[in-house]
Amino acid sequence: MAALLARLCRGARVLRAVRLTLAAAPPPRRLAPTGPPRPLSFSAAELVRSAPGRVQPYLRLMRLHQPAGTWLLYLPCTWSIGLAAEPGCLPDWYTLSLFGAGAVLMRGAGCTINDMWDQDYDKKVARTASRPLAAGDISTFQSFVFLGGQLSLALCVLLCLNYYSIVLGAASLSLVVTYPLMKRITYWPQLVLGLAFNWGALLGWSAIKGSCEWSVCLPLYLAGVMWTLVYDTIYAHQDKRDDVLIGVKSTALQFNEDTKQWLSGFSVAMLLGLCMAGMNCNQTFPYYSAVAAVGAHLAHQIYTLDIDRPEDCWKKFTSNRTVGVLLFVGIMLGNLWKGQDSKKEEEPLENS
Fold first, then answer.
1. Among the four 62, 140, 231, 333, which has the fewest Cβ within 10 Å?
2. pLDDT per position as a tens digit, 29-43
């Protein structure tokens, strides 16, 4: 009996100890509601953020997270390739793909060169202070090696073209290298950028035809240069206050409050160049409809532009991808329409 009582006492003490332990323990952690799953994003910025940490500075150096500039470099190439297509045919997709790869590489190389020249300036401007070179994420030597890799790959793309196009493409490198210096010596660096960025308007035609038809290529090229003066002047208005402080020049500072008048003049010159190029290669109604749509888009941009709001300048700048795509679609449809006209002309000859 005594033994049984002793066991009961020990059991009671154990239960009391367990109860005290449970009382002192923290309450169980409640899981927060997870909510709906985060949707997958395939934007360029998201892809760069998801890349390995060591790779990200190089991707940002070549502006892969901001593809608007790559589109603006690529689209004049597509115009020229499209205009060079045979009547009734779509543009050559292999050539379009080659030029797409070249645009990514050469835009990346241009941005790398620009940041190497401007890293001291970029540190003083809020919008550019986070760029990899300015922020110290990579060194100048690493950037130089990376630039060599990009140019080597771009050369591989160029060597896929005919000899005329290889020489013509190589001739653009001087513009790519010297453009960043222009903002130090002239208020018209956007003009030099336009000469470089629209080289594809010459190169695309020669890649298809073997040489340039200057009556088509030259007006198309000059139209592209005028287009660059429009969108890059808008872009430059984002930084005009910082540019004044650090001594950098731009058309935004040159035109100042007269910007809209200048942009209107450049837009008219662009439309005239497009019309001349179209007439010299027998373009049809869809092409001129696209040119009219381009004119309407540019007019809306200029009319609604607020040059003192950087966010509006950026929005207008990026919308120019739509301008380029509109024209490319018009060129493709115009070529298909041209093929139908050719068939109608051939039918009476066959019946006679």
1. 140
2. 444 444 454 454 568
